[in-house]
Write a structure and sequence with these properties.
Layout lengths: L1 H28 L7 E2 L3 E2 L16 E9 L24 H18 L3 E8 L10 H8 L4 E13 L8 E11 L5 E6 L15 E8 L5 E8 L5 H20 L3 E7 L30 E3 L14 E2 L12 E2 L2 E6 L2 E8 L12 E7 L2
Length: 359
């Protein structure tokens, strides 16, 4: 009996040292990315043509899409551990690559003038280290683009049966017009131990010059914090930035995954709606509005996000609209639509909008 007790104690000591060692590794590897990081502008699509004078003009309409691609593998039949489901990894590398090709193909067919993508893995264990941005860019033709890192974590040993591993993830913004500046801004995060497990929250600002010497500013956002107070502080920072540019006479479109229910709060709770906070409309600055508030009801019947705990089943799986746009009042919305792609390629579906840039 004493022998087995000694063996057990020895095993426990080893486990304690392993835990301490892993904790030190994780702590030493954690480092927030710098604020106000300037990002390089590149071009997508092999053999695409780019004119030197391509610019966006006021007095014209443009189409814009925001799409959280779900790491490239959260297809309609995928159950995600992150949301209480089964799996942490993609079923296979082949599925990731095939699904990304499909995503790029349908985006090309939609042919938006601007594209905002979120949850694009660059080098992550869960997606077999496929550089999803490079793969998508082989198919998206004729765009100027840039991307900003939103998660760069060391190896996460959880869950033990299929560790999440390392994650290097980004958001990307595309434009058919010339981009003169891209800036990554670090958002406020929790100031406790949970910050080590959450993404390195950030938003991305892309500046596109107009012929009238003003700029179109596109804000690409993805709010991931589970703390509503933190998320409100993040919104406040974004809105302060947007207000400053608006006062300078610039045009503002803010889009992405806001992590809130963007619909108006109903008098009676819908049991088939994912239970997350409603967007704090009282925080929206004067001169700005949520795009969904001006949409025809028939255009936004479909929700942009499904519960990824289970495989998707129409009219059964809980859903919510987290994705959308906020625009300044010098931009008119001609068309606004929650696209119904049946969550075939991601646990999110795109939101599409046509804007008219007022002269």
């Amino acid at each position: 009996m004493k022998k087995w007790v000694k063996i057990l104690i020895f095993i426990l000591i080893i486990l304690v040292f392993l835990l301490i060692g892993y904790s030190l590794y994780f702590y030493n590897e954690y480092d927030r990315l710098p604020d106000r990081e300037r990002l390089e502008t590149k071009t997508s699509g092999a053999y695409s043509y780019f004119a030197d004078d391509e610019a966006i003009n006021a007095g014209r309409a443009y189409n814009i899409m925001t799409y959280n691609i779900g790491y490239g593998f959260t297809t309609s039949d995928y159950s995600s551990f992150e949301y209480g489901g089964k799996y942490t990894w993609a079923p296979s590398e082949e599925l990731v690559m095939g699904n990304l090709c499909d995503i790029a193909d349908v985006i090309n067919k939609t042919a938006p003038d601007f594209i905002l993508l979120q949850n694009v893995d660059i080098d992550s264990t869960r997606s077999y280290h496929v550089n999803e941005l490079d793969l998508v860019n082989e198919f998206l033709k004729g765009y100027y683009y840039s991307h900003a890192t939103t998660s760069d974590t060391p190896f996460v040993m959880y869950p033990l049966y299929a560790p999440k591993g390392e994650c290097l993830t980004s958001m990307a913004t595309y434009s058919t017009g010339i981009i003169v500046e891209n800036l990554r801004r670090s958002l406020p995060i929790r100031d406790d131990l949970t910050k080590y497990l959450e993404p390195d929250s950030a938003y991305m600002v892309t500046r596109i010059p107009l012929a009238n010497e003003k700029s179109l500013l596109i804000y690409n956002v993805h709010l991931t914090s589970k703390d509503d107070e933190v998320k409100r502080s993040q919104l406040k920072m974004i809105f302060n930035d947007m207000e400053l540019e608006y006062r300078l006479g610039n045009y503002i479109v803010c889009g992405g995954d806001f992590g809130y229910n963007l619909r108006m709060e109903p008098p009676v709770k819908d049991d088939n709606t994912i239970d997350i906070p409603y967007f704090p409309r009282d925080m929206i600055p004067q001169g700005f509005s949520l795009g969904i508030d001006s949409a025809f009801p028939v255009s936004v019947i479909h929700d942009s996000t499904r519960d990824a705990k289970y495989a998707y089943e129409e009219d059964v799986t809980p859903t919510v609209t987290e994705d959308g746009f906020i625009v300044s009042d010098n931009i008119m919305i001609n068309y606004y639509n929650n696209a119904d792609w049946k969550y075939e390629y991601s646990n999110h579906d795109p939101v599409l909008m046509q804007i008219y840039v007022k002269e």
